[in-house]
């Protein structure tokens, strides 16, 4: 089980090695993604709260990165956090996401990115449910639910 101390260690020292790498030019990303996906995933934007595809969706499946298809979260780790965005307690596996300290907008947070293609997913906070206490607050524009 991943804990807050693990998040901080990865953000501070080194993230897990990704299973593969996907690298594209900004022009290639713009061609592949919708304008809103590009704004969120490549320019580190945030979608509107409560008005996104997966905020209130709890169907079984797995969530993959829109940019590269890597598995990021399992629906079993999704919960109703009343944050306005899809929230998860754990990543799909240890190497699914990477962590970066983010002090933008006058806040101190930990950004969550796809570990394979470096797309911005959202942020992780240490105010989630027990036992791990993590809340991965993820933009719906960055993920795609797939049936298992």
TrEMBL record:
EC number: 1.8.4.12
MsrB domain ranges (all copies): 26-148
NCBIfam families documented for this protein: peptide-methionine (R)-S-oxide reductase MsrB
Annotated TM spans: none
InterPro entries: Met_Sox_Rdtase_MsrB (IPR028427), Met_Sox_Rdtase_MsrB_dom (IPR002579), Mss4-like_sf (IPR011057)
Catalytic activity: L-methionyl-[protein] + [thioredoxin]-disulfide + H2O = L-methionyl-(R)-S-oxide-[protein] + [thioredoxin]-dithiol
Keywords: Metal-binding, Oxidoreductase, Zinc
Enzyme class: oxidoreductase
MF-aspect GO terms: metal ion binding; peptide-methionine (R)-S-oxide reductase activity
Gene Ontology cellular-component terms listed: cytoplasm
This protein's name: peptide-methionine (R)-S-oxide reductase
Lipid metabolism recorded as keyword: no
Record-stated family: Belongs to the MsrB Met sulfoxide reductase family.
Naturally occurring in which organism (per UniProt): Pontibacter ummariensis
